[in-house]
Amino acid sequence: MKVRELHPTNVWGYFADICAIPHPSKHEEKLAQYLRDFAAAQNLEIKEDKTGNIVIIKPATSGYEGHQTIILQAHFDMVPQKNSDVEFDFTKDSIVPVIDGEWVTAKITTLGADNGIGCAAMLAVLSDNSLKHPRIEALFTIDEETGLTGANGLATDMLTGKTLINLDSEDEGELYVGCAGAVNNSATMEYATEKTPSDYSTIELDLRGLKGGHSGMEIILQRANANKLLVRFIREQTATNNLRAVEIDAGGLRNAIPREGRAIVVVPSGNINRVIEAVNEFEKTLQYEYALVENAIKFSAKQAEKPATEVIKCEDQKRIIDALTATPNGIFRMSESMKGLVETSTNMSKVEVKDGKVTVLFMTRCMVNYGKRELNAMIRSVFELAGGKVDEQGDYDGWAPNMNSPILEKMQEVYRSLYGKTPEIKAIHAGLECGIIGAKYPDMDMISCGPTIRYPHSPDEKVKIDTVAKFYEFLVITLSKL
């Protein structure tokens, strides 16, 4: 069976179309054109703002003309993640969705169910004239994954509705009423180099096989951070085997937990065997430490084909490694008001040490602004003490829960009538666009739901097949009851 033949075929068919069109963040042009062509084929009104967001409008069906307009919302970019040894160009190549038992996943890359399934559900609603619903404004936002650019740039005259259903959550049977705010921190430092000592040999270190994942949703799983582990090894071997660093290139996107890291180092030629043995022992140590959360950590070393002619000066290397060691990473505080919810966290997502400059990227998330400010201050303090500086970009507030929300009450009622149980009410430690949209449209009543997605922002991403059918049924019945 092909993915587009799964039930409901309209949702899966549109999802297969979306997968076939390259649409990584900041490269959504082809998918935007697909949405324009879809609206034209369906004879539906379409609006665009200067940021690139698209609204497709479907009139109310017979008997629903006097009901309030409902906004459906999803983002149409995706996180482009693959392992470093995989040949794949996200700007040109199609995602290949495959059925794997109860799940749909992708071959060798992220799947893009985040948020392609939400977009597919919206297209299915817009194209199905058998459904009953009020007037619908389907908002497709761009570039959510690299700074919520679409939501931040959303024009204030694009929407008329007062109720918004976001389709970007990742657990069927749960309704989300709040989300974390976030800020991007960029730390930089400079360093000097000197000639490599004559009796030193060059080694390439390679750490891979970590699970990674969504830096908001899966930070609670305490997965290993490749950046932190690589720095830890360099620090230990500097002390024991006189290791000198040349370059570090580890991690990647801000919103993905780092899965891989590489470094070029030099060591006294007489210590090569000791360092390689230390690499093997460190791999065993990591496999033991993370046995319950990681199952494929690989750490290797090989002598470089091209010897390094320069190394970082000792005093600068100490500043760099000390700063990277001291900087917080992972969960900082759990919520006291909602059990099991991370309140504040940071993800050290990227470390690059090259050509005299250190660049370290973070994404800090928090449900409350004071926690975000506290963690920002810690990151800034560490790097300023080490002679660097920190810039902050893309700061946005969270979405505060409204337990008296009319759409929450209605969707709880619908879910109980369909499935005989009450959905869980939750907030999410991730950057849903609801908070930003709510700031632009202050009277908006909002909620978020979706099917079950696991390991987003990593090549292990997958969506559970039966939950897509359940999510879509819940959505269309809700629309008929509003």
First CA to last CA: what distance? 36 Å
Mean pLDDT: 96
Q: State the low-pLDDT regions, or none.
A: none
CATH topology of the largest domain: Aminopeptidase
Counting helices, strands and paired strands, the structural category is alpha+beta
What is the annotated CATH architecture of the largest domain? Answer: 3-Layer(aba) Sandwich
* CATH class designation of the largest domain: Alpha Beta
The CATH superfamily name of the largest domain is: Zn peptidases
Query: Biggest sheet: strands, sense, closure?
Result: 9 strands, antiparallel
The radius of gyration is 24 Å
Structure description:
The protein has 482 residues and is of the alpha+beta class. It has two domains: 3-180 and 398-481, 3-Layer(aba) Sandwich (Aminopeptidase); 183-396, 2-Layer Sandwich (Alpha-Beta Plaits). 30% of the residues lie in helices and 29% in strands. It is built from eleven helices and 25 strands. It has helices at residues 9-20, 29-41, 113-127, 149-152, 226-241, 272-289, 314-326, 369-385, 406-419, 434-440, 465-481; strands at 45-48, 54-58, 70-75, 97-100, 103-106, 136-141, 163-166, 174-179, 181-190, 193-195, 200-208, 213-214, 244-251, 256-257, 261-268, 298-303, 310-312, 330-334, 342-354, 357-366, 389-396, 424-428, 445-448, 453-454, 462-464. Strands 9, 11, 13, 15, 16, 18, 19, 20 and 21 form a nine-stranded antiparallel β-sheet that branches. The protein has a six-stranded mixed β-sheet with strand order 1-2-6-3-7-23. Strand 19 (342-354) and strand 20 form a beta hairpin. Helix 5 packs across helix 7 (314-326) and helix 9 packs across helix 11 (465-481). The chain is elongated. The mean pLDDT is 96.
